[in-house]
Write a structure and sequence with these properties.
single chain, mainly alpha, 83% helix
Length: 100
C-alpha cells in the first residue's frame, strides 16, 4: 500500500493540531502570568526568601534579648538567667530543626 496505512495518516494529521493546541495553551498561560505580574499579583520567590530570612533573624534576636531583660527586671541570679536563656535557645533550636 503506497503511503502507509490509513491509521498512520490519521495520526499524522492529528499531531500538528495537537501541537498547535499545546502551543496555544502555553501562550495563553504565559499571557496570564505576564498579566498577573503587571497587576502585582505575583511575588519574586528570591525576594520573598530574603525577606523571610530577615524577619526570622530579627525575631530570633528579639527573643534572645528577653532573658537578660527579665533577669534584670526580676532580680534573677546568674544561674536562673542562664537557665532561662538555655531553655529559650533549646526551643529555638527545636523549631529550627523541626523540618529536618
Amino acid at each position: 500500500m503506497a503511503g502507509g496505512s490509513p491509521g498512520w495518516q490519521a495520526r499524522s494529521a492529528k499531531r500538528p493540531q495537537s501541537e498547535k493546541t499545546g502551543l496555544t495553551r502555553a501562550q495563553a498561560e504565559l499571557a496570564e502570568v505576564k498579566a498577573a505580574q503587571a497587576r502585582g499579583d505575583l511575588l519574586d520567590a528570591r525576594a520573598v526568601h530574603v525577606r523571610w530570612v530577615e524577619t526570622i533573624t530579627a525575631l530570633r534576636s528579639a527573643l534572645l534579648a528577653v532573658p537578660p531583660r527579665i533577669a534584670t527586671q526580676m532580680g534573677l541570679d546568674r544561674a536562673a538567667a542562664a537557665a532561662l536563656d538555655a531553655e529559650l535557645r533549646a526551643a529555638l533550636d527545636q523549631i529550627a530543626t523541626a523540618r529536618e
